[in-house]
């Protein structure tokens, strides 16, 4: 799915689909890019005219109603993923988690944590005073 915002009509968002991605990349200034063709859905916005510029938001995958945490709070040991959380007695406990999709900032937790659990953002630093914690809402 693609969300399209025309610079000339920025308040109107259009929807579309990617119909072609070039297999050949270009590298300009160290930035690799691929040419793609987007087909806007008809009848959902202003008329598209040749020469208009646009900003695209491309959704490659997504999930709804999931538990997610900052990616730096998850670490691996022996091929398994873990999160350190604050137990009811105030101590720190390591719990194994099953992870899902992720981006640069967050990672989905499929099992091992519950909504309302308080986790450590930087587990490697939990013994340092002032370590950051976060409650999952």
UniProtKB/TrEMBL annotation:
Cross-referenced InterPro entries: MdtA-like_C, UPF0194_transport
Location within or outside the cell: Cell envelope
Cellular compartments per GO CC: cell envelope
Domain called Multidrug resistance protein MdtA-like C-terminal permuted SH3: residue spans: 65-125
Keywords: Coiled coil
Keyword Coiled coil (UniProt): yes
Gene3D superfamilies: 2.40.30.170, 2.40.420.20
A Pfam family this chain is assigned to: RND-MFP_C
Cited PANTHER family: BLL5650 PROTEIN (PTHR32347:SF23), EFFLUX SYSTEM COMPONENT YKNX-RELATED (PTHR32347)
The protein's name: Multidrug resistance protein MdtA-like C-terminal permuted SH3 domain-containing protein
